[in-house]
Amino acid sequence: MKPLALDFLAVRAPSRWGGILLVLGLALCTGAGAAFWQMQQQRQSLELSVAELSAQRSVRGARPVASKVDDKTRALGVVSERISVPWERLFQDVESCDGPDVALLQLQPNITQRQVMLMGEARDRLSLEAYMKRLDQTASLEGVHLAQHNQAPDSGPWAVRFAITARWLYSSP
Q: Is residue 3 in some structural domain?
């Protein structure tokens, strides 16, 4: 068997491609840096122009340009309005009308239109009418009326499926 000749210290001659790639990379980085600097200068110039125009408009009494702060303020106003809605009173009033002959399946409040839609099932037409009368006597709801109904013979003791709409009474903050 022949012994292996391993030379761990052999040095190769450097390739020309490495140097060429290095020079090209440096040139690209320099070009990108110069383009970025030029864009920054243009941006600063445009911001200065906008500031001058806004100052001129405010001197002339023109309305200032709407900013993103106004949008955020409007969005916060909508959120605070929805938080201040008296949900507890609505839920208490609807729950106080519960009875053994009516099953409420869904409650859909509409804050912007101040309406509430209640969907459920009743044992019969008389139970449904009594439920609607109880809802109409609450402090939160008025104008309670039957929006849709149908007979549900396959649902066991629950014979009538219904949707009731009502005006939701609450005062804005």
A: no
